[in-house]
Each structure stands twice: as C-alpha cells, then as structure tokens.
Amino acid sequence: MKDKKRAMGRGLGAILSAESKATVNSATDEGADKFVGNIVEVSLEDIYPNPTQPRTYFDEKALNELAQSIENLGVIQPITLRKDGEKFEIISGERRYRATKIAGLTTIPAYIRLVNDQELLEMALVENIQREDLDAIEIALTYHRLLEEIGLTQENLSQRIGKDRSTITNSIRLLRLNPDIQNAIRSGEISAGHGRAIISLESEEDQQVLFDLIIKEKLNVRQAEQAAAALKNPKSPAAKKAKVELSNNYKKAQKTIADILDVKVEIKSFGNGKKGKIVLDFKNEEELEYILSHIK
After folding, report:
1. Which residue out of 19, 30, 60, 94 is catalytically annotated?
2. Model confidence pLDDT, tens digit, residues 75-104
3. What class, spelled out in words, does domain 120-232 have in CATH?
4. Which of 164, 168, 175, 50 lies closest to 118, judged by CA?
5. Which candidate in 4, 89, 112, 181 could, as Cys together with 35 as Cys, close a disulfide (CB 3.0–4.6 Å)?
6. What is the pTM of this model?
7. Where is average pLDDT lowest: 25-34, 95-104, 113-122, 276-285?
8. What is the SS3 assignment for 50?
9. Is 94 a catalytic residue?
10. Where are the alpha helices (DSSP H) in the chain?
C-alpha cells in the first residue's frame, strides 16, 4: 500500500545521483539548474532538521493524523531543503518530514535551495511567521530574531511580511512581560490583547496585580484595559468602571471590622486574593485615637 501511494516528483528522483550530491553546492556549480526550481525525491536518511528551526513544539496527535494522510495519499506539498554537501537541511516542512518518517516512507518530495546560513535562517523565520497556529509569544520571538539575528529594521520586516510596523512593535513588547504571563498567553489562558493591557503598566507589581485580576475575575480585554487605566489613575472614571465586586469573604471581613471599630471601612482587593488594602475613615483626631486604641 505504501509503495503504491507515492509522493509527487518521483520521476525526478534520479537527479540526486551520488555525484550531484557531492558536487552541487552553489548556484554556479554544474548541474545546479537541475536542483533549483524542480521537485525531486530525497531520501529521508539524507535529510536533517534545521537546528535553529523557530518551531520547537510538534503536536503528537496532529503528527500521527498527518502521517495517516501521507500513508494514504502521499506528501501533497513538497518540503524545502538546503543543499549541504551530501546531505540536505530542512528550510521548511519539518512537520511533513517527521510525519513521513512515521508513515514509513523512505523518500519525500522536495524543492532544493542553494542558500547561505543567514538566508537559511531568514527563510525559516519568515516561513514560520506564516503559520496559522502560532501563539502571540512565538510570533514576537520570531520577529525579535529577524530583527536581532538577521539585522532587519522594523521597516524592512514590515515590507517582507506585509505587516504594519505598529503590529510588529506591539507584538515584540509582549516579550517584556514576565515568564508566567508569557506562558499564560502561550497556553491560551489569556489573550495577546490582555497582554497588551498588562504591558501598558510600568511597574512589574502593577502588571502582576492586573494579571491576577484578569484570571480571577475572567475579565475580557476591554475590562482589562479599564482595570489598567484604574491602576494608572485610581481617581479616573475608568477606575470606577473597573471596580470589581468584593468576594463574600471580603464583604464579611469589611463588616466585621466596621462593627468592631464603629467607623466606615473599605477593603480594596487587588484581585489575587492575597493583596489589597483596608481604608478606615475618621472625621477627627478623637476618632483616630479611638481606632488606634482598638488595634494596639
């Protein structure tokens, strides 16, 4: 069954002779034209993954499903490889390469590119950005690598991937969040919109407070933005909108303290159940002395 369901490009497999594998390494070498632009069958034994591949996680269930498809229909879309001596390094398509091995095939159809290390990294990174299953942090990390390792400017990067500079800037800012918050974005516990609301706060303490509040109260992005505005300016109209209903435990504690001290008491929770403050109202020095006498 596997032998009958072959991948596309099988007829060009003979191109990869031992001689061509050894001698064709650049676009100027004799026979290079037979590689570039053609689909050829390459032995899986001659292929190795790109060690700087931006993608680091491959879902096992999805891989097995793809392997089943490949076993039945073959590899529909060729992978892209870089010629490296007698071997081939993956530029894009590592997921298809892994699934093909699981399916038990021995070759895979591929496009061959003759590129240097920097071009390889750039192609792998740009190809990675185009994936639909990327989380916001993985996208930000890829943007950062293109800027830092390839040396692109944000304007260059914007033109190459068709994204506004502001989109790239806002994405990269998420990398300033602490690892716990970044992991929450990666896992889908909160969205990138929540992350942007959190990063709008300057202090790490306020960022943590807002993150805890988002998780505990299940705030949507708009509510998170209002809460961020409240933390920046507690007296603003946004602060009133962002005010969260106290839990029953806090309400009971607030009433107990008010009954004991016989003054107005307000408990303000920061949302994580561990942080907050208690505000005691007093009208004059006598009332302050009265309060102090009960808490000494």
Report:
1. 94
2. 988 998 888 888 898 888 888 999 999 999
3. mainly alpha
4. 50
5. 112
6. 0.50
7. 25-34
8. coil
9. yes
10. 18-23, 32-35, 60-73, 94-103, 117-129, 136-148, 154-161, 165-173, 179-187, 192-199, 204-217, 221-232, 237-242, 248-261, 285-295
